């Protein structure tokens, strides 16, 4: 539980975690978005797999192609991470009250995380729309249905000019579903795995040096964060595929219904289409979320946040 007075510090720690996540995870996200956009149209895949997609990006655009749309991602992810960790910690404290519990309480964790996820979706949706549209355009748009933008700001302004304010929030309902379900899964996995690993470690070692304690805390953060990230994306990847297609659709009048979109994908390419980008997503999920959790816990500790 977060002790009162530490709320602002939790948001700062979450912000640091978001920046670390983008640095590690954005190239994997670019590959995921490319696969989701181009490999769900027909039975013929534009990219054979994640490795082929990566090589094509590097060949045509260089390393910077893997970080296309990263500036909007930095802004969106940093604030999203700040809010989700801060809101989650405060909501959990509010629901838990003064009750002390050794074992994580799922009846507290799940609604706290889902509530935080629902709130951040309103900030995350516009940032991800810009990021995804930047990622799919590539270098040569002469034979593409996708509009080419000079940068994230140009993308946002053109979207609002052509589609109105509601255009920048395209895919908002799908983002809300993804974040609510995903964060409930993420924090449940994180809290439970962290708890049992600490129990196991403490039962095997009654006396540990400060250095070994720091190393073990980092190790537990890496494993619990990585597993939580993989659980998040395994649970909600179909919704993420639907969100990507809704946000990058060339036709502004196309459906915004995620279930209708997934039904259309399934009818064209089967169940595998609903999990397009699974490989790079899971490859990204472990290191990116491991870094996020270690950064969050480390920053909170440096800022003097006290937890049970």
UniProtKB/TrEMBL annotation:
Entry keywords, A to Z: Membrane, Mitochondrion, Mitochondrion inner membrane, Repeat, Transmembrane, Transmembrane helix, Transport
InterPro entries: MCP_dom_sf, MCP_transmembrane, Mitochondrial_Carrier
Membrane topology: Multi-pass membrane protein
GO cellular component terms given for this protein: mitochondrial inner membrane
UniProt xrefs under PROSITE patterns: SOLCAR (PS50920)
Residue ranges crossing the lipid bilayer per the database entry: 66-88, 108-130, 214-236
Biological process per Gene Ontology, one example term: mitochondrial L-ornithine transmembrane transport
Solcar repeat coordinates: 5-94, 104-196, 216-302
Stored Pfam families: Mito_carr
Entry's Gene Ontology molecular function annotations: L-ornithine transmembrane transporter activity
Subcellular location: Mitochondrion inner membrane
Gene3D superfamilies reported in the protein's UniProt record: Mitochondrial carrier domain
Family: Belongs to the mitochondrial carrier (TC 2.A.29) family.
Protein name: Mitochondrial arginine transporter BAC1
Organism per entry: Iris pallida
